[in-house]
């Protein structure tokens, strides 16, 4: 039994009505009907327009309510001011989904935004799903569905295309046709007032016709849903994405075009890396990457080898690789020995491999084979310039033969035009990427290696709290609540450091003096030398206002500094509120590096963590590395490595390398703060001084704001942390301890082995077939979840070695699109049945769904599975017959009183 996706009425309709169908040539209503007919729609097609008897031979009805068949999908092509009445009519007629092609809504101003809101409210009142408005429509070539007003159609294929721009869709389709690129689904979202990226992505995840996905994004409305679906899609299918609005001018243009908010581009980039997606920047890169990745390319690393018959082109490729941070392969001794036997004495003996201008077919072939077999090579760029004895076409044919058996990407660059044209055609026919110049060839490899790296980031599912010593969350909350109760949003330095201390981050202890005498007493208690800084909620950069004095070694200097600080600040910032002067020990670290660790709120993705060079250079150097929380050790290491300051943290000049564990510790703790303290809007530790002995936060500033209570404690985050707090144990009468915990991506092997051992009957009742093993895509789908819209619990027992785990049961739920109900499934190992495990698992699952705020839990059961029917009735499920399928029963459990 194949489960029907809730978006099937939109994307797999059996009946379609075109409202606003017209006989007028080139009108939108005319083009849509013509496109549907030309595509050979397999379902029933109806036209609606009171002015016509028929449109292109399709009988026309006066209104949607007059159509003698309930429509799955209505395509609306009437002026904006008439659409609200049309949607009301669709609701009364029982239409399940609508596409609004018309413009004139939120993108046109306040009046249009009000109309759009009323249209969406009407659609929701009738439970109609809405695509658009201001969109091109959808195509499903396999079904003969072309519900668009485009003048170009899609060829049947395996790529899913989702775009916020209809114009870009037509451009991509126009390029695709002569290049034999086909599509499973094409969706133009328009304003995304109801259906957005997230839901279309979720459909494509489960759509067997879609093997890879291209996306064009202007802005995001629901970051959590977007990240959830994007991560889910990227786990099982390659995803390429172009995001525009990278600069303020572009962001303003997006708001006027689609009404979307684009947010900070560096944050969006970090989100895409974390989602395992390839980000591209122009259409040329998109087409090149699509050709490569959607054929047979599967990247494995980022070390590039370059093979060329000309030194100059090789250097051009090296320069571009350096620009993009692509390391050149360092050949092993074995590879060098092979190359020395193949190549003449004058070869470069390094990467790039300059085979010299007289390189023939055999030299190219043997060199490429030797390089591909090398252990330190992840991909090869083969370059050719048409020199005197070179045969570009014959060399291309040899490269194709070698590439057929290669397990690493091969990219080619045949420079020139007339003499190399046939060689390029040879590569194109074989599906091998080929370019005219070195730079785009290296860029393609860069994108493919980024995919490899991002897939590793995607697999990370850190918990909100690490394995480190637990923080004092309650203490931190009290500090924040006290400030908010006093109507303050800026914490002073002592309060800010109190938060850090609550999360075990080492701090330079700070006290505040309110007179020169008090300053001297406190300085003597702390121990000279000291640092003195103005304590004011109005001043962010204390040094700029004259509010900092360093390395004060005597009490007389402390007394003088106190007066000077107050005078300078009052002169430079006369309106600033002054609490006093903060005093702390002078941190003397001869080998210390001054770093900055920060938190800020992105308008789209919520809190993000930043890292880079600190001290006085933090404003001059705004190029900070960015990551989305939660973080774990792998993600922290990646964040540090991706920063420009990373090169200064190792052995540098006369300084030893810093204590990386101490630095990673601070970043992990800041991630914990972000997860557990949703009140934080900004945090800056500057400087964080790190040397070979550890790290200390010298200065800190935190701002907070009130947040509304939420059932989801992580509602402020774009990525839901791993819910380690839901782990529990259950002891059997024989003493066996069963661990019940949320599933992780690394549980893939456990899940495969568990399913392999199930009996045919258990497999049939759970999966509706008796497959021997789970397909890889299904394994990823079952084990790599986002914990927000779904939850899965494993029941495990210790293996024979006492260390490994053995899975003995699993249960899961997935939240339905209404956000109020969920579908569940449960299966227990055959030798663990009748031991109460299924009931225990269901108890944990039901309680989790209840705490999530869900109202109902639904189940679909085979009518002949009497044991399961009796089991769920015992849990309180109410059973009913499925009106559309007599072989199944439907069950509903009310979760809330």
UniProtKB/TrEMBL annotation:
One GO MF term attached to the UniProt entry: acyltransferase activity, transferring groups other than amino-acyl groups
Pfam families on file: Acetyltransf_1, ATP-grasp_5, CoA_binding_2, Ligase_CoA_2, Succ_CoA_lig
Gene3D superfamilies: 3.40.630.30, ATP-grasp fold, A domain, ATP-grasp fold, B domain, NAD(P)-binding Rossmann-like Domain, Succinyl-CoA synthetase domains
Limits of the ATP-grasp domain: 497-533
Keyword Cell cycle listed: no
Keywords: ATP-binding, Ligase, Nucleotide-binding, Transferase
N-acetyltransferase domain boundaries: 738-897
Family to which the UniProt record says this protein belongs: In the N-terminal section; belongs to the acetate CoA ligase alpha subunit family.
Annotated protein name in UniProt: Acetyltransferase
Organism: Aromatoleum tolulyticum
